């Protein structure tokens, strides 16, 4: 057997036009399934999302869409060094976050800003991280989009792929020992799922029975690599069975399906201490990052097919059919969000960089003598050439005027060198 | 107590004192570890706090990082230091950078990684390595290597309680061979502080872990020639005690550093460069490094490969006759 007999269906609830699939259609029957059928999964809650939650999800989706558009533009204008959009994957990320408790831990990859926005990370907080200013919690150390929030139980993002997956297993084990009924969700791409850490994590999670939800965003590509070059089998979901873990595949552009599946997964995780794998089928509508151009590896036609399946549009159609949303609200919200994002960006850009001392803090709980000395050496050096290190000099209290004086003196010296005149009356200093 | 008993005793004390201390790794459960360092601990503290993991080093350390970030105090075992490399990414990119990259929102300070290292036991390529220098190039990590049972207990307790991730490398050749007085009580020895084992006038000998035994033998040989050696056990590789080492060299004017690991890129290079920078005018001979050869660790020609007491003794004489 190669497993080809098994093709995991996609759990769907919402059509693109905003109407629900009838509960008894085959799509509606997609359920949390397990290799071992003896343990039945808990039934999925059938009510669509409650009104306030639905509106909050939708507003969060609109916010991340506006943020993504604005920040990509800012990157193109050279105001920001780097950016990554989550366009097309909003329902997966925000729908799942909405199904969790606020103190459940989220350990994400990098395209999950929606989950953080759902938890209440403010526009200014996003901006401070991206611009690495003095208010960035990460003290300007990491590239843009590597957010983290202790208060919101959102683990700081790191670039190495999949490393957070076994960490989520360990985190969930700690939650199990603490016995407070919390769980961890870890979100990752289908590309990251090829890393060894994915295997290690799921196997350990199953053996040690931890309350962890593994949510894979299968968006078809890992940078330029299509998923058919990522794996030969039926995606990520069936891998769970090899670990004796329950698994479900959902339509990742269908916010109701994602929400319900995550709700059910959370219940299984915290009530029975069993990990679960969710595979959300979606599409990375944007480029991989601001450094990528997808036209080299995929067609406009393919993108257009998926643009028609836009998760935000689908949810909007549903909300309007419920009578919960209107054209006017759409426009007003959009305008307001764009204003908010722009103003917040302007504020963040103007804030000072992190203080020079943050170069060496947090390497250890307290700086070692060697680190303290290295910082002192850098300060000495900046005192000599302040114009060359404007951010460090500013945080040491050099004024703009002093920087200018230093810059001029240095330039004059350079010019003298170019005209082969001896510096300082023939003496080099 | 021998070194294994001292380590077992330290783990027992740490678990009794702090219910969040959790031990795990390959075969550490009922069996108590392939060297028996975790004997009886599962019995005493239960399967939830002392357990076997699947055979996956990257999984063990990834799991440990998450558990530490959650606020627990994991003590993870890697069965042999030779097999730590699958977890290199989780140690170097994750554990060591956790606090810095998050601006101290999150940390894995509770983490301790224990691993047996070193040669001299006919372990061939993959049961003999001393990989400390790979990790010494990693800001954010602490590295500790004890030389006897008393140190093993005191340093391990300090490592477990230190608010930073610590790599604790145990000289497996000495597990049973090294026996000594170990207080029953809970005590700690400081991390980052070298131990001057013996004061001397003529030359400074520096090493760590199992190599200290070898260095002491070499010093005894030199003593017969009337050479008075100062012997320093570095104990912590990262951060290392620059001051104690440099003060010693300022006094003796000569330095021999010895470690089992290969020469090129070994930690002796870091020490030699630093001492040269700080003690330049006081050095009376070139700093000598007596180390393993730049080869993989061989089986049959192990004795020839290793920096034994005769090789160190020769280096001492060459330094004095320079
Ligand atoms: C260990 C590691 N290898 C390579 C990279 C470079 N890299 C960054 S993102 C990426 C693709 C990830 O694809 P996927 O997991 O499918 O997520 P997606 O970008 O589609 O959301 C690669 C290869 C990395 N960050 N880490």
Automatic annotation (TrEMBL), chain B:
GO MF entry, a single one: branched-chain 2-oxo acid dehydrogenase activity
Keywords recorded for this protein, A-Z: Oxidoreductase, Thiamine pyrophosphate
Cofactor list: thiamine diphosphate
Transcription regulation in keyword set: no
Superkingdom assignment: Bacteria
Species, as recorded: Cobetia amphilecti
GO BP, one annotated term: response to nutrient
Coiled coil residues, start to end: none
Keyword Oxidoreductase: yes
General function of this protein: The branched-chain alpha-keto dehydrogenase complex catalyzes the overall conversion of alpha-keto acids to acyl-CoA and CO(2). It contains multiple copies of three enzymatic components: branched-chain alpha-keto acid decarboxylase (E1), lipoamide acyltransferase (E2) and lipoamide dehydrogenase (E3).
EC number: 1.2.4.4
Domain Transketolase-like pyrimidine-binding as annotated: residue spans: 1-177
PANTHER family per UniProt: 2-OXOISOVALERATE DEHYDROGENASE SUBUNIT BETA, MITOCHONDRIAL (PTHR42980:SF1), 2-OXOISOVALERATE DEHYDROGENASE SUBUNIT BETA-RELATED (PTHR42980)
SUPFAM superfamilies: Thiamin diphosphate-binding fold (THDP-binding), TK C-terminal domain-like
Protein name: 2-oxoisovalerate dehydrogenase subunit beta
């Amino acid at each position: 057997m190669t497993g080809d007999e098994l093709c995991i269906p996609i759990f769907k609830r919402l059509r693109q036009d905003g109407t629900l699939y009838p509960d008894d259609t085959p799509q509606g029957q997609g359920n949390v399934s397990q290799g071992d059928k003896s343990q039945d999964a808990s039934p999925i809650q059938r009510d669509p999302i409650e009104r306030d939650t639905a509106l909050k999800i939708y507003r969060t989706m609109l916010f991340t869409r506006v943020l993504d558009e604005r920040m990509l533009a800012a990157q193109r204008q050279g105001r920001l060094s780097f950016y990554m959009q989550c366009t097309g994957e909003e329902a997966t990320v925000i729908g799942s976050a909405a199904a969790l408790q606020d103190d459940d831990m989220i350990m994400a990859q990098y395209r999950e800003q929606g989950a953080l926005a759902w938890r209440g990370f403010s526009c200014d907080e996003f901006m401070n991280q991206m611009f690495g200013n003095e208010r960035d919690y990460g003290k300007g150390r990491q590239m843009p989009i590597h957010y983290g929030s202790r208060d919101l139980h959102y683990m700081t993002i790191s670039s190495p792929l999949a490393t957070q997956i076994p960490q989520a297993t360990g985190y969930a084990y700690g939650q199990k020992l603490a016995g407070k009924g919390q769980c961890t969700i870890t979100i990752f791409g289908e590309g990251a799922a090829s890393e060894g850490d994915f295997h290690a994590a799921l196997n350990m999670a199953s053996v040690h029975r931890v309350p962890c939800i593994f949510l894979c965003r299968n968006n078809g590509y890992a940078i330029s690599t299509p998923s058919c070059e990522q794996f030969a089998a039926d995606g990520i979901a069936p891998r769970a069975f090899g670990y004796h873990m329950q698994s479900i595949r959902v339509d990742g552009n269908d916010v109701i399906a994602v929400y319900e599946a995550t709700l059910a997964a959370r219940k299984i995780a915290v009530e029975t201490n069993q990990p679960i794998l969710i595979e959300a089928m979606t599409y990375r509508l944007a480029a991989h990052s601001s450094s990528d151009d997808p036209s080299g590896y995929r067609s406009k036609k393919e993108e257009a097919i998926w643009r028609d399946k836009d998760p935000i549009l689908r949810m909007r159609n549903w909300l309007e059919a419920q009578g919960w949303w209107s054209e006017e609200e759409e426009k007003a919200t959009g305008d307001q969000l764009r204003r908010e994002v722009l103003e917040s960006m302007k504020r963040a850009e103007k804030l000072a960089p992190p203080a020079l001392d943050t170069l060496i803090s947090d390497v250890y709980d307290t700086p070692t003598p060697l680190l303290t000395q290295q910082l002192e050496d850098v300060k000495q050096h900046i005192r000599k050439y302040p114009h060359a290190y404007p951010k460090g000099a500013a945080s040491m209290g050099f004024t703009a005027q002093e920087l200018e004086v230093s810059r001029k003196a240095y330039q004059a010296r350079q010019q003298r060198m170019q005209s082969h005149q001896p510096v300082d009356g023939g003496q080099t200093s | 107590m021998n070194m294994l008993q001292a380590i077992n005793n330290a783990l027992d004390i740490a678990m009794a004192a702090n219910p969040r201390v959790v031990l795990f790794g390959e075969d550490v459960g009922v069996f108590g570890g392939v060297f028996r360092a975790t004997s009886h601990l599962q019995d005493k503290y239960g399967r939830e706090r002392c357990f076997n993991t699947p055979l996956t080093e990257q999984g063990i350390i990834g799991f440990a990082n998450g558990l530490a970030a959650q606020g627990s105090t994991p003590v993870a075992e890697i069965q042999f230091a030779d097999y730590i490399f699958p977890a290199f990414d989780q140690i170097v990119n994750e554990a060591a950078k956790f606090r810095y990259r998050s601006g101290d929102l999150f940390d894995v300070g509770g983490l301790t990684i224990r691993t047996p290292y070193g040669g001299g036991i006919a372990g061939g390529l993959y049961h003999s390595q001393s990989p400390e220098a790979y990790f010494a190039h990693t800001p954010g990590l602490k590295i500790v290597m004890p030389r006897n049972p008393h140190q093993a207990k005191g340093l391990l307790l300090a490592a477990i309680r230190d608010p930073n991730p610590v790599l604790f490398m145990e000289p497996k050749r000495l597990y049973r061979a090294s026996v000594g007085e170990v207080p029953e009580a809970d005590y700690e020895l400081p991390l980052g502080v070298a131990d001057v084992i013996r004061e001397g006038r003529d030359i400074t000998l520096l090493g760590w872990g199992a190599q200290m035994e070898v260095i002491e033998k070499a010093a005894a040989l030199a003593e017969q020639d009337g050479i008075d050696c100062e012997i320093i056990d570095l104990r912590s590789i990262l951060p290392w005690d620059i001051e104690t080492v440099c003060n010693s060299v300022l006094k003796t004017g000569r330095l021999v550093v010895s470690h089992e690991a290969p020469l090129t890129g070994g930690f002796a290079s870091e020490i030699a460069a630093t001492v040269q920078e700080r003690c330049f005018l006081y050095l009376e001979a070139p700093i000598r490094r007596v180390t393993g050869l730049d080869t993989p660790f061989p089986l049959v020609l192990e004795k020839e490969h290793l920096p034994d007491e005769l090789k160190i003794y020769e280096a001492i004489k060459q330094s004095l006759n320079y």
